[in-house]
Amino acid sequence: MTHVASSAHGDAASAPIDVVITWVDGDDAAHRAKLNAYLAELGQQPRAAAPTRFRSIGEIDYCIRSLLKFAPFVRRIHVVTDAQVPPIFKRLHELSEADRTKLVLVDHKDIFPAGVDCLPTFSNRSIESVLHRVPGLAEHYVYLNDDFFLIAPVVSADWFDQGRPVIRGFWRRQPEQTLRYRLKQRLQRFFPIAPERARAGFVAGQVASAQLAGFSDCFFSAHHTPTPLRKSTLENFYRDHAALLEKNIGFRLRSPQQFSPQFLANHLELAAGTASTERSYRLLYMKPNEMSRNAIRATLKLLPLRAHKPLFACIQNLESTSEEIQTCILEWLTSKLN
Fold first, then answer.
1. Given this model, what pLDDT does residue 50 score?
2. Which residues are CB-contacts of 130 (< 8 A; sequence separation ≥ 6)?
3. pLDDT value at position 49?
4. Nearby residues of 222 by Cβ (< 8 Å), 6 or more positions away
5. How far apart are the two ends of the chain, measured CA to CA in Å?
């Protein structure tokens, strides 16, 4: 199945750029009630419903503040939530008037198609499938999770090259083409994974997306960095494949059967020759819940010595660490934003 993205316009270098962030506060009583009601219907708690997937310790504030400081050219920052309000929206008086006007709160009901029974949803891939429907969204936008941060000044060319999305990563063989994958499949015949324990992997979502765009033996491997996108690329694809969109948004929890829309867009652009590629991720990627305190401090201290100084940071599972480690990392982020 191949779809050709529309051509990037040559005058797009001066076009507005928006940012879209998805966010949820898993400690919110209303959110917990919705999730628990759905899990009661299922009669089980799948891996995708683990509480840590929805917890927040204020990362969204750091994410937004980093965008305001290091990407001042961004026109609007759209925060997509389910009837929730991020802390920074309750303290808008702390921001300049120019920064306040950039922040837009978007509810799931504003972007999911009317008449389709798919809300409430707890699947990031379902939500990502309709981010292009954010009201008033610019043609050129960048998608971030709320645990992504800018840690150095960014220019528009870091995300769009004359209107062409700059896709960071490299080509890899699809796992199905490797001996390791075939051996793993054989083992699972004898030791099958229960459906509720199946993992909707990051790489698997990219591979499924590559296949939808017509790539049968390779995929462009991305990392946890902000993803530049063109709204028209997904609009055009979904116009021709409405059933695929409806199926992808029908999952209430993230599923291995879903593709990742942002990576679908990547591969559509690559197939059409309307993307620029960059091998350097320019990324600091950390899972502090799997690191010692000394390892975390050493990583942060040595950061300025890296050959390709990071522009972006992704710090996952911070809520699962000790209070001491949380303080260490949040103080470091604060120092970057002061």
1. 67
2. 111, 112, 113, 245, 249
3. 67
4. 167, 168, 169, 206, 263, 266
5. 48
